[in-house]
Amino acid sequence: MIKLNVAEIKKSLVDKKAFLYDLKPEELGLSSEEIKIKGPIHVEGDISNVGDVLLLKAKLSAEVDRTCGRCLKDLQGTTEAEVLEKFYLKGTENVENDAYVYESDIVDITEPLRESLLLAEPLSVLCREDCLGLCPVCGCDRNIKDCGCDTFTIDPRLSALKQFIKD
Ligand SMILES: [Zn+2]
Ligand SMILES: [Zn+2]
Predict the structure, then answer these.
(1) 78 and 154: one domain?
(2) Contact by Cβ (8 Å): 2, 23
(3) Which ligand is nearest to the CA of 143?
(4) Which residues contact 131 (CB under 8 A, 6 or more apart)?
(5) Is the confidence at residue 100, as pLDDT, over 90?
(6) Cα of 138 from ligand 1 centre, angstroms
(7) Could you tell me how far CA 105 lies from the centroid of its own chain?
(8) Are 33 and 82 within one domain?
(9) Are residues 122 and 138 in the same domain?
């Protein structure tokens, strides 16, 4: 969990506190089933006192292991995310239920950081735009070899026509 002490910046308007971290996925509660992060998650940002709320701004980047959605080849990529969230003092009135709140002088920024990375990671990636994928018949990688399997599925109407021609 990543917690910031905001006692100082709460004292004066527009005061801000900058931070810089290299985090392990576990520190943001990220499991390898959710996202396969290699090396540290680089986090850079600040939290500022903008009056009735504290404003969290951060940029994250991490190297990620991915898999091509067509040929299943391992790929490496970089996920980059940006966070812009408000934190309300607990007990503030007229605040939405899902708003981030903090108590006294401690702001837990784990959840917005965690969420931003998960949202930034694409659901599916391709090794290249025109990846040929795996052969549905023999399972070989069609980018590497042309297995020549017959993957053409005949439209039933065409097959009736074929029959007709044969007769
Ligand atoms: Zn591929
Ligand atoms: Zn094949």
Answers:
(1) no
(2) yes
(3) 1
(4) 68, 70, 71, 143
(5) yes
(6) 16
(7) 29
(8) yes
(9) no
pLDDT at 49 over 90: yes
- Same-domain check for residues 40 and 96: yes
Nearest ligand to the CA of 66 is 1
Ligand that lies nearest to the alpha carbon of residue 71, given by its number in the listed order:
1
State which residues have CB under 5 angstroms from ligand 1, the bound ion: 68, 70-71, 127, 131
Helix (H) or strand (E) holding 102: strand 100-102
Ligand (nearest to CA of 138) = 2
The answer on 80 and 34 residing in a single domain is: yes
Closest ligand to Cα 126: 1
Pair 68, 147 in one domain: no
Distance 159 CA to ligand 2 centre (A): 22
Per-residue exposure over 133-155, b if at least 16 CB sit within 10 Å of its own CB, e if not: ebbeeeeebbbeeeeeeeeeeee
- Residue 160 has φ and ψ, to the nearest 5°, of -65, -40
Q: Are residues 59 and 118 in the same domain?
A: yes
- DSSP summary character for residue 166: H
Q: Domain range for residue 57?
A: 3-131
User: Quick one: pLDDT at residue 32?
Assistant: 92
Q: What is the mean pLDDT of the chain?
A: 91
Could you tell me which residue, 151 or 68, shows the higher pLDDT? 68
Task: Please tell me whether residues 41 and 67 are part of one structural domain.
Answer: yes
